[in-house]
Amino acid sequence: MSRPVLVLIALGSGGLLTLMVLCNSTVTAQAGPVWGSLVPHATGTVAAVLALAVLGRVRGEGTAPGWAYLGGLLGALTVMLSSVAANTALALSGTLALGLVGQAGFGLAADRWGLLGMPRRRATWRDLLSLGLILGGSALLIFGAPR
Fold this sequence. Notes:
By secondary structure, this protein is an all-alpha fold. It folds into 2 domains: 62 residues, no CATH class; 80 residues, no CATH class. The protein contains 5 helices and no strands. The longest helix has 29 residues. It is globular and about 50 Å long.
């Protein structure tokens, strides 16, 4: 795929992530974080089963390493934590901004130390500057908002 298409896919994914956190935090506000995690995972399971029924196995014949199957557990925890945080003074934008800081920070650590089979790569000054700018933007969103 071309780079512009991949950029559009990533931007669309970010928009969908925002909608997902909004939906999940709304359920969480009404029914609690466990239910707020169960609902999207149950509906996601149904959607995945339907997609498999329609598309079949698209690619990949190998098996993933054992640790990769923890993604579901990590997803459930992420949904619960982000749904709780979005219902606080952080609001949706602050929750997503800090989540991005956590993602970028963990990504740099995974690259640096080759965590979970990632190829090792030292962070450049641009990587660190980018992380600092994301953190600064997050601070502006959270602390610069009118009260």
